[in-house]
Each structure stands twice: as C-alpha cells, then as structure tokens.
Amino acid sequence: MTDFYVKLLNYSLHALGARALTEHEIFDKLKKKAEKLDCGEDYIPNVIKRLKELALIDDEIYVRNFIKTHSALNPSGKIAIFRKLRLKGIDKDLFDSIWEDVSPDEDELLETAYSAFVRKKGEVNSQKQKERLVRYLAGRGFRGDAIYSKIRSI
After folding, report:
1. Over the stretch 93-110, which tens digit does the pLDDT of each residue have?
2. Which domain holds residue 145?
3. The pTM of the whole model exceeds 0.85
C-alpha cells in the first residue's frame, strides 16, 4: 500500500463518518483531495473498491434510506426526490427500481404536503390561494394530474 492510497482511504473514512455518501459524491471528494495531495486519480478506483468491499458505500441502500427519510420528513413527489438524487449521481434506472420497491404512497405524501400548506398559508378558498397551492405542490415534485385532482376536490 502506498502512502497516497492510505491517505485517501483515511480521508474517505472520515468523510463517511460524518454522513452517508453516494459513490459519485465520494469520488468527487477523493478527486479534490487527490489534487491537493498532488497524487493523481490513479488511487481513487482502488479506494472506492475497498469502500464497497467494506460495505461503506452502497448506492442502493443510500437511495432506499433517502426515499424513506425524505418522504417522512419532507413530503415530496417522485420527481423532486429523483431530482435531488440525480445531483448525487444516482441514475434513473436504479431510482425507478427502488422507488417501485419502496413505493411510498404518493397520494398520502400529497395530502401531507397539502396539510402543511394549509397550516402555513391558511385555507384554500380563493383562486389566488389555489394558484399558490399548485405552485407549492409542483415545486415539491408532485405530478400535474395528482395536483389538479387535489385542487378539484377542494
């Protein structure tokens, strides 16, 4: 083992100790660290391979936990959750397969988001409030048909 490999491995262990990261995120962090150490990117694949062997990075588990946590704490639709995960390097096929498996009830999430809107902004009893609600729900990544179905039921 070389000195650079050990330094990059220790750095990644420290980063993963702070919070869970996707493979893409850890690669980006290691790339920046390698530039600072002036050692090139040759060691990064071996460090990532070792992290996978130790089960410290697993994108599938990361996505499952992200969907469950995000759905519980910050009700959002499939579109918004995927948008956030895409920024973390998660591809659509992996997301779709896990979304179908985890399958949070989007209608229930929509209802929770609607309730949060009513708590913050008041009852939806005018056209202006309905327009605000549409923007709010669309910004949270809910499908258009689900949003307009909710608006019609009000």
Report:
1. 999 999 988 877 888 888
2. 106-153
3. no
